[in-house]
Specification:
heterodimer, A: 108 residues, mainly alpha, two-stranded antiparallel ribbon, 5 helices, 76% helix, B: mainly alpha, 11 helices, globular, cell membrane (chain B), transport (chain B), transmembrane helix (chain B), AzlC family protein (chain B)
Chain lengths: 108, 235
């Protein structure tokens, strides 16, 4: 690990770019209006982003080659999805997910 | 979830996600400590950067001695999806003051964003500063405290993977995706399912060409575009 000073300034720099990504849209949209087309486009952000974040975790990347399937995460996703459908309770979904992956890792 | 936008209701709505933040916060603390970070630095990272998955990447880049410019660029790319989430959320806060807008933006996360989009389906398309800020503050507090505890535990446990805690984040994405699918009535379920189904090959084949840092943003943009086309063609 690099020096504490280097780590600290890296944190500050990363904090600033992350903060800007978060707040600039809020500041700009106070002044400007989005067209109906853009609003419709953005209405798909919740499902596309959640799906992308989930699916990305099902693979291991090897640039230039087909990704490798992450079987542990794939198998653990099955009881997690079933819990979602059966209970619709976020807390249960997360708990079942954690236990599923722990069990899968134990078995492998 | 119901139509109330009070502080109590925000706490009730956030509670189910708290377990996920604890799981990931603990694993992050453990990973940071085992990579050689002090408890103070790990806590500061969660306080200052506050960006879930990007923090894990940050640790691995720091550990291999990456130059600061490359680290900042990677973190920006991983978090660039925040721009899309903030743009989407900002539309519901146009009548609020600039300070309130900045406060909500500063602490928005994947989960608080998904919760708020889910909430809209119960409140007739309305969100309040009070509700969103409570959700955000709770998440921030739990995240920072779990990081600190995790970093302390990290001196004892070195292999957090065995506990399956890292799956809390993935499970939360699955849960939030499903809850959004069944409650969003503005887009038909058929179109939503088609869009989600298209995301799988997009991510799979995208991983061949685009670094996963940038891929989330690229496939989200493509997915939204396809969504609009499908909605007009089918609904």
């Amino acid at each position: 690990m690099p020096s504490t000073k280097f780590v600290f300034w890296t944190l500050i720099a990363c904090g600033i770019v992350t903060l800007l990504s978060r707040i600039l849209p809020f500041i700009l949209l106070k002044k400007f209006n989005l067209s109906a087309k853009v609003v419709e486009f953005l209405s798909f952000v919740p499902i596309t982003i959640m799906a992308a974040l989930w699916f990305e975790n099902l693979f291991k990347q090897h640039l230039g080659q087909l990704p490798q399937i992450d079987y542990a995460n794939l198998i653990a996703s099955i009881p997690t999805v079933l819990t979602a459908i059966l209970t619709k309770k976020l807390l249960l979904i997360v708990i079942v997910g954690i236990i599923s992956l722990a069990l899968v890792r134990l078995a492998i | 979830m119901d139509d109330s936008l009070s502080v109590e209701s925000a706490i009730k709505d956030t509670l189910p996600t708290v377990f996920g933040y604890i799981g990931i916060g603990l694993s992050f603390g453990i990973v940071a400590a085992s990579a050689g970070m002090s408890v103070l630095m790990a806590t500061l990272m969660s306080l200052i950067v506050y960006a879930g998955s990007a923090q894990f990447i940050l640790i691995s880049l720091l550990a291999i001695g990456t130059p600061i410019v490359s680290i900042v660029l990677s973190v920006f790319l991983v978090n660039s999806r925040m721009i899309l989430m903030s743009m989407t959320t900002a539309n519901f806060f146009k009548k609020n003051s600039l300070v309130e807008n900045i406060l909500i933006g500063s602490l928005i996360t994947d989960e608080s964003f998904a919760l708020s989009m889910n909430k809209l389906n119960f409140t007739d398309g309305k969100l309040t500063f009070k509700w969103f800020n409570t959700v955000n503050l709770m998440a921030y507090l739990v995240w920072v405290v779990s990081t600190t505890v995790g970093a302390m535990l990290g001196k004892i446990i070195s292999d957090p993977e065995k506990l399956g805690l890292d799956f809390a984040l993935v499970a939360m994405f699955i849960g939030l995706l499903y809850l959004q699918l069944i409650s969003d009535k503005t887009i038909s379920l058929k179109v939503q399912l088609m869009v989600v189904a298209v995301m799988l090959p997009l991510v799979y084949f995208g991983l061949i060409f685009i670094s996963s840092d940038l891929l989330i943003l690229v496939v989200t943009l493509i997915g939204c575009g396809l969504g609009v086309i499908l909605k007009h063609a089918i609904d």
